């Protein structure tokens, strides 16, 4: 009887553990189509927690992909449809050394030249961009997940005509690509 109980306990414990390991995902709906990003909180806990905070507070809704460079990346999350900068929480610590690479379809934190300056902006790699990794360009840019569905939507972004603004911002899609919904999937 004790052996049966301990086997049952082991099975329940294994199931509980496997559910805890299940990755969280975010489904984005945009004016160009939908895509889903699986988050890696094991290797990038700070970046994932930060990203989820913006998803849960709803502030990614109404933002646009404001910088799209074919063969490189699509960046979003920081500006509304009128290119007005959105308010953000404080910057986070860079997790560029987490072992995740800037590979095709991965999502990473955008930042300034200050390594610990990432806030709300993110980018999705259209190609392998090894030169953004900590091993090539210390301290690197922190990857925190990967597009698991709808990568064709991101690729489609790179086919859209872009423009520059008088303030020097470039590679802005002429027709804004707006995030209309962001849903956390557990």
From TrEMBL:
Reaction(s) catalysed (UniProt annotation): [protein]-peptidylproline (omega=180) = [protein]-peptidylproline (omega=0)
Single GO MF annotation: peptidyl-prolyl cis-trans isomerase activity
UniProt similarity note: Belongs to the cyclophilin-type PPIase family.
Keyword Signal: yes
Organism: Aliivibrio fischeri SR5
Keywords: Isomerase, Rotamase, Signal
Annotated protein name in UniProt: Peptidyl-prolyl cis-trans isomerase
EC number: 5.2.1.8
Function according to Swiss-Prot or TrEMBL: PPIases accelerate the folding of proteins. It catalyzes the cis-trans isomerization of proline imidic peptide bonds in oligopeptides.
Domain of life (superkingdom): Bacteria
Stored InterPro entries: Cyclophilin-like_dom_sf, Cyclophilin-type_PPIase, Cyclophilin-type_PPIase_CS, Cyclophilin-type_PPIase_dom, E_coli_cyclophilin_A-like
One of the GO BP terms on file: protein folding
Matches recorded under SUPFAM superfamilies: Cyclophilin-like (SSF50891)
Record's signal peptide: 1-23
Location of the PPIase cyclophilin-type domain: 22-184
Keyword Transmembrane: no
């Amino acid at each position: 009887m004790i052996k049966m109980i301990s086997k049952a306990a082991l099975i329940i414990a294994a199931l509980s553990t496997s559910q805890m390991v299940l990755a969280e995902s975010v489904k984005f709906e945009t004016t160009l189509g939908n895509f889903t990003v699986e988050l890696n909180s094991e290797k990038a806990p700070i970046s994932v927690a930060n990203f989820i905070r913006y998803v849960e507070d709803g502030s990614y809704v109404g933002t646009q992909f404001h910088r799209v460079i074919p063969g490189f990346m699509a960046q979003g999350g920081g500006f509304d449809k009128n290119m007005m900068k959105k308010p953000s929480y404080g910057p986070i610590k860079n997790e560029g050394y987490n072992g995740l690479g800037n590979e095709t379809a991965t999502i990473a934190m955008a930042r300034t030249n200050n390594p610990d300056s990432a806030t709300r902006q993110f980018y999705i790699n259209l190609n392998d961009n090894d030169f953004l990794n900590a091993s090539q360009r210390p301290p690197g840019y922190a990857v925190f997940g990967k597009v698991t569905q709808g990568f064709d939507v991101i690729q489609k972004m790179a086919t859209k005509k872009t423009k520059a603004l008088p303030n020097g911002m470039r590679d802005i899609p002429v027709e804004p690509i707006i995030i209309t919904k962001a849903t956390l999937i557990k």
